[in-house]
Amino acid sequence: MTGMAVGRAVDLTKLYGYVDLHCKLEEMFDIQGELCSTLKKWQVVYADEEDDMMLVGDDPWDEFCNMAKRIYIYTYEEAKQLAPKATKLSRVNSSHESVTPQSGSDYPASFANADC
């Protein structure tokens, strides 16, 4: 997966929260169990309208759905280097997967620290 830029779309209105999003991304990129794992192999981040990059899961689900314009999957080490002590990430060129969310969700936040 590293080194590929992939433009795929995810309809956030069909998902109920961050766990669903992680499961959908795992399915799309054939990395089942790797986003929800405690091994921390991958980190999911998103870009908002101003191209600021933020960690997925830091905002309530409905706010995330309205703000996210692009979703990226970085290796955990790449994400850690981007912002070791902050949730706001600097924009960098890196090996990553990208997904374009289709937002507009009316679903309530349903984040849970559960496996997919």
TrEMBL record:
Residues 1-87 form the PB1 domain. It is found in: Nucleus. GO terms for cellular component: nucleus. Pfam families: AUX_IAA. Signal peptide: none annotated. Residues 90-105 have a biased composition (Polar residues). SUPFAM superfamilies: CAD & PB1 domains. Homodimers and heterodimers. InterPro entries: ARF_plant, AUX/IAA_dom, PB1-like. Residues 84-116 are annotated as: Disordered. Belongs to the Aux/IAA family. GO terms for molecular function: DNA binding. Keywords: Auxin signaling pathway, Nucleus, Repressor, Transcription, Transcription regulation. Aux/IAA proteins are short-lived transcriptional factors that function as repressors of early auxin response genes at low auxin concentrations. This is Auxin-responsive protein. One of its GO terms (biological process) is regulation of DNA-templated transcription.
